[in-house]
Structure formats: structure tokens, C-alpha cells
Amino acid sequence: MAGNSVTFSLTATGTAVLTYQWQKDGVDISGANSSSYNIASTVRTDAATYRCVIGNGFGSATSNGAALTLGIAPLITTEPLDSNSTVGSTVTFSIVSEGTATLSYEWKKDGVAIADTNSSSYTISRADLTHIGNYTVVASNLYGTDTSRTTALDVGYAPTIYAQPESGNLNAGENKLFISAAEGSETMTLQWQKNGVDISGAKGAKIVRYYKQYDSAELKWYKDSDNNWCYTTREGVLNRQKISSSGGKFQVSNESYNCGVVYWNNPWQLLGLNFYAVNGAQSSDAGSYTFKAVNRFGSDASRAAVLTVKSPPVITTHPAGRSVIAGNLMWFTVAASGTGLSYQWQKNGANIEDANSTTYTIASPAAGDAGTYRCVVSNTHGDTPTSDAKLVVLLPPTITINPVNVSASSGGNITFSVAASGPAPLTYQWQKDGANIVSPQNVMISQHLQKFDSAQYKWLKDAEGNWCRLNSDGNLYRQRLVANGTGGVRIQAETYNCGVAFWGNPGALVGRSIYAINGVASGDAGSYKCIVSNTIGSTSSTAATLTIE
Questions:
Q1: Considering the domain 6-68 in this protein, what is its CATH number?
Q2: Below-70 pLDDT ranges, the chain
Q3: 225 to each of 48, 193, 242, 304, how far by Cα in Å?
């Protein structure tokens, strides 16, 4: 047996002096030159055929060969491996060993020998929970034994998904609840995924216990797999207060899952279910959602539930109304969020050709550009219009009624009148022969008070709020307060010979600036016009000639 001492020896005769040379498998052994050869502690490589060559001065003789056979005790060179196996599966433990034949084997479970296991491998054809334990094998031969490491067999159930999440089609801002469930041996790791990638922190809420004794008319109480308290409301909303730790500090977060009223009526149905909520869905939430369960025996994943989110554009900046001076550059702008956006500007509800960007510019606004503008922002999910923006184009006054020529006798009364339109306030300056008339007697009629009309008078008001009356001869009378030059005021009576045509249509006086000359003289003859102004500019009426007969 390896490790023991072995001595080979012989006796030889012949004329002295005899010499000795021991050989191993025909090769001289250095220093082996006596009538015996000793190996103090044999090893595997010492197994061979040994002989000795004896010589003297007359010749040599070789002994017969002596075979050295060594017995090697068993040595396990490849150990059996631990195994986590599912119920019903085939489990095989095996080793690799060496040693002098013939080797025998005995497998043991939890230290107890298993019958009929004389093999370097041991197979369990249909594993069940009774096979859970620690296994070893002892290898033996005539020269000794060796025992393997202890290997563990655990038997259980791989996860199986038995409730599949359902797809959903949402409008942006709506909520979606995914529900799934898995069964299998604990401990299972549960994880929701989006497009095949784990959602951070999304292992969902798994309800494991229902506390019926705590029910009230408004709430029903549960605990989840993390021992967090949960409750449902009568509307079927599951609320969970989740406690987590980060950086040595505890954090509390509240989560809500709209499970549906069916679970209020049947609270036991919540047990075992796992929930993942997408609240206030946005386009970025669209994708494929799966639920995965993993334990030491295997894994399973749900079928994919596709979430589609209709996300029409959201207007973040609406165009603002503008008042611009005609001819000056102006623009409207819009800002929106969403994907695949397109833009269409409209005026008074009609599309503007080639107006398809976030900015709509009018290089030189004119009167025809005034109106109501908006932009319709679109994508594949829908159209979103902005609020209306009104464009006011500020123009200088436009003369709508020009003064007309007048012929009058010396001492008579005459009037010139003008009407204009344009952004208020409008001011009027009468001129004679191109020079401003200082403190002219003129009146701006603003209102016809028809309900006060009588057979004698038609009643009106001027722009200063003074009452005026018109008689059937077409004469307009006004009384107003004016400064008297000494710090006081006086009542000034004024007469305007407007013409009998206005008796039948006093409303035609509204909006007119009327300039009166009473008791005309030869010096009043000339050319008269009115300059109408506002903050944008000024416009002159045509000239009207006063002829004194």
C-alpha cells in the first residue's frame, strides 16, 4: 500500500569482489548498489519491476524481476454540486474519484445510507418535498475510504403566472392599473417591466392578508407582502402607505390603486394579486408591460400588456392679442408639448395658407389683417387649438363724410360738417385757407335721444355730454359752460344751421364734427377743411369753399 516501506534483497555467490546495481523497469537506480534495496515510503510512481545486476572481474548475472504493486486508497477529485430542483424533475448527484480498483460507493441522505446506491452517481427520477436534505457519498476499496463534501438538495415549485395583466388604451392624464399574480415556492422576487426593462422600484403591491375584524362601513384593511398596511374604500380604491429606507432614514410614501368596486364587495379576491399603477399617463408611459416572478427554482413572466396613450398636444403658451400700428412688423407665437407636432394658423376660423410653424408673422399689417387668430397644433393623437388672439390694426382716421361747398348771404348762418372713423380718441381741427381756426364754434354730436323727441324738437347730446336740440328748420341749439376769463364760467348759447334735411334724420348728425359761422361776412369767404387726428396719425378732409354773395 502506498506509504509503506518496501525492501528488495538477494543472495549471490562468486569470486570476490561482487558488485550490485539495482534497476527499476530496466533502468539503473542511482545509489542502489548493495545486496538489498529499500523504499522507505512508497508512492504511486514506485509501482514497477525491480531487478539487480551482480558482477565481478569474471562476468555478471541478472536476477529475476520482482514486481512492486501499490494499492491506492480512494480520492474524490470532483465533488457533487448543490441543487435547487422543481417538484417532479430529475436530480442527479455525481462524483469523480480515483484509487485502486475495485471502488465501491454508498450515498447517504442526512447521514443515513440510501439502499442500492453503489455508483459514482445517484439519480432521483421524480423529486418531491421528501427529498429535501443533505447528501454525501463514501468511496471505498481495500486500501481505504473517502467521503465527499455535503451537498444540499432543495425541492420546490418554480413561479407560475396565473393572472395576466390586460392591455389598455388611455387618453393622456388617465390612470391604468395592471394586475397580475404568481404562485410558487417562497421566497419569490416580483418585478414589473416595461419594454423588457425592470421598472425601478416597481415590484408592485402584493396583498397577502385581509383583516376582516377591522372592517368599517367605509374601509377594509389588509397587509401587503412588505407588512405595510393597506385599505380599500367603497369606490374600490386600494391605498397603501409604503415605508422605505434610504441613507439610514425612513421614508413614507402613499400609493393608490383603482382596483374597482368588485374588490370592495369581494375583499378576499385581492389576496395574492399584484398591482402596478400608471397614474396620469403621458405619451412616455406607452409601451409593453410584463410581470416577472423569480425564485431559486426558476422564473415565469406574464404575457405582455400593451399600454397605448393618446396624447394630443398640450398648449403651454397661447398667442396673445396684439394692437399694432399699420405697416409695423408683428407676429404671433405658440408653444406646445407632445410628439410629432404640426401647426396650422387660422384667421377667423379659416386656415392661413403656408402658416405652419410656431410663429406666424405679418410683415406689414393693414386694415384687412385685423381679426381673430389661433393656431391648431396636431399630432397622431388629435388636434388642440390655442385660445383666440385678437389682432387690432391701428390706422389713422378715415374721412367718411367731407364738408361741402356753401354759398351764403352776408349776415347769414352756415355750417360745415365732417365725419371720420378710426381708433379713438379722434380730435378735430378746422382750418381756413390752410391755417388753424383758433377756438372755432364746433360741436361733435355723439347721441340721438329719440325717446325725448317731440313735434317741436329732436334731442341729442354732444361728446361733452351737453344737451342739444334740433328744430324743424334744421337749426341745432346747444348751451354749454365756458370759461369767462376771470376764473369763473358762463353759459354760452350756440346755434348751428345744419339744414332741414337733418330734421327728418337727426341720427345722421351722430359722429359729425360741425363747425358753425353765424353772421357771415365777406372776410369769412375762403377754403375750409378739417384735420382729423388720433394717436396713429392725421387725415385731412377735402376742402369746401365758402362763397359770400
A1: 2.60.40.10
A2: 243-251
A3: 69, 19, 11, 24
